[in-house]
Design a protein that fits this description.
Elements (H helix, E strand, L loop, with lengths): L4 H4 L6 H27 L1 H24 L9 H15 L4 E7 L2 E6 L16 H10 L4 H4 L5 E7 L8 E7 L10 E3 L23 H54 L7 H14 L3 E7 L2 E7 L12 H18 L5 E5 L8 E5 L1
Parallel strand pairs: 3-5
Antiparallel strand pairs: 1-2, 2-4, 3-4, 6-7, 7-9, 8-9
Helix pairs in contact: 2-3, 2-7, 3-5, 3-7, 7-9
Length: 354
């Protein structure tokens, strides 16, 4: 019987829905890593980890995106605020931009905060936000070769003020390293006027590109987070923290992702279809075969960790927890075995489930 029009146009056949599902899982995994590190390693450690991953992300993305976003001709303070407004809006974040003058421009990230997700904000120590402020915002002037450019933070995410807010300002004098970030909670961000905010050129940013960029936004936090997890905590702790987080997030989000991708059923083939759709939507090639009561799944490439070289084994050990957690919810009596690893020199990653 031919499929009905509703089936043919199901969510599982929609690239936008698939990319959104990838973004959802990696967003949750990133938030989970923040909470896992904070609860197991303490507020200082999670703050240092956050600073390191945002600094890494800054070096990879900040200047490389200026031309794409049409910011190269703007004054530095205005360009920075415009960058954070546009790049985060592309990622699905509720953010505001307020121009004061050519040497001062504001950004405000509104509640509910994307980075923390739901009730997670209650478990996030203040050091997390201060980590990314120092890791990225305070380093913009360094990357732009402008020693007078700094960031003044006027509100923080977890202090029950008005979101994360502050302004980039070009001061009269050069700033010492300890002056690149300042805190001024007595100052209040001005009102947001959407009509005065920067705009994306929609001819350069069609819907499909925006949806894919939204996926990439969440993936970048995970990939850079795993790299800095290894650098800060070492192999054993990084593997354990990342893997345990993956196991829990896979469990918590599997049913929701099944619904998003319109995948029902509880057979091995259903789970293989889930993994295949997800892996493909994340930018890699996936094939699978069923042999009686055993499924073999192969993934060619690993777009998530494309900027990590060399591929340390702990990245896969951590990330693979997502699949193990999802399988436990799908059918807790099934077992997954990794039979090939690209990070060990094989041509692909391979799982067998039985």
């Amino acid at each position: 019987m031919p499929p009905s029009p509703k089936t043919a146009a199901s969510a599982a056949d929609d690239d936008g829905v698939r990319w959104s599902a990838v973004a959802k899982l990696y967003h949750a995994y990133f938030t989970g890593l923040i909470l896992m590190i904070a609860s197991r390693q303490g507020s200082h450690s999670v703050g240092q980890w956050t600073q390191a991953l945002f600094r890494r992300q800054h070096h990879l993305r900040f200047l490389a995106s200026f031309e794409k976003l049409g910011l190269t001709a703007l004054p530095d303070a205005v360009a920075c605020a415009s960058y954070h407004y546009l790049s985060n809006a592309i990622g699905g974040v509720d953010v505001e931009y307020m121009y004061s003058h050519d040497r001062k421009a504001w950004v405000r990230f509104c509640h509910p905060r994307w980075i923390y997700g739901g009730t997670a904000i209650c478990g996030v120590p203040i050091e997390v936000g201060q980590g990314y402020i120092h890791g990225w915002y305070g380093h913009n002037g360094v990357s732009l070769n402008n020693p007078r450019l700094g960031f003044v933070c006027t509100s923080q995410d977890v202090t029950a003020e008005y979101g994360f807010a502050g302004y980039f300002q070009e001061f009269d004098d050069e700033l010492r390293p300890d002056q690149r970030v300042r805190f001024a909670p007595e100052e209040i961000a001005p009102a947001f006027d959407p009509a005065a905010a920067p705009k994306l050129d929609l001819s350069d940013w069609p819907a499909a590109r925006l949806q894919k960029a939204n996926r990439n936004y969440a993936m970048d936090f995970v990939s850079n987070g795993l790299v800095e997890l290894l650098r800060y905590f070492g192999t054993a702790d990084a593997s354990n923290l990342g893997h345990h987080t993956g196991q829990l997030i896979g469990r918590q989000f599997y049913r929701e992702l099944q619904t998003d991708l319109a995948i029902g059923g509880d057979t091995l083939a259903d789970f293989a279809q889930f993994m295949s759709i997800f892996i493909t939507a994340a930018g890699d090639r996936c094939v699978w075969q069923q042999h009686s009561e055993r499924i073999t799944i192969r993934q060619y490439g690993w777009r998530l960790m494309r900027d990590a070289s060399p591929l340390h084994p702990c990245y896969f050990d951590a990330w693979n927890g997502l699949w193990l957690g999802a399988l436990n919810v799908h059918d807790r009596f099934r077992r997954m075995q990794v039979t090939a690893r690209a990070d060990h020199g094989d041509d692909y990653f391979e799982w067998q489930i039985k």
